Amino acid sequence: GVLAALNSARAKSREAKRISDLKQLQIALELSYDTNTAYPAAINTASMVTPGYISVVPTDPGVGNPAYSYAQSGSGTGYCLGANLEGTVPQGSNAACVTSLGGSVDYAVSP
Question: What pLDDT score was predicted for residue 1?
Answer without folding.
Answer: 79
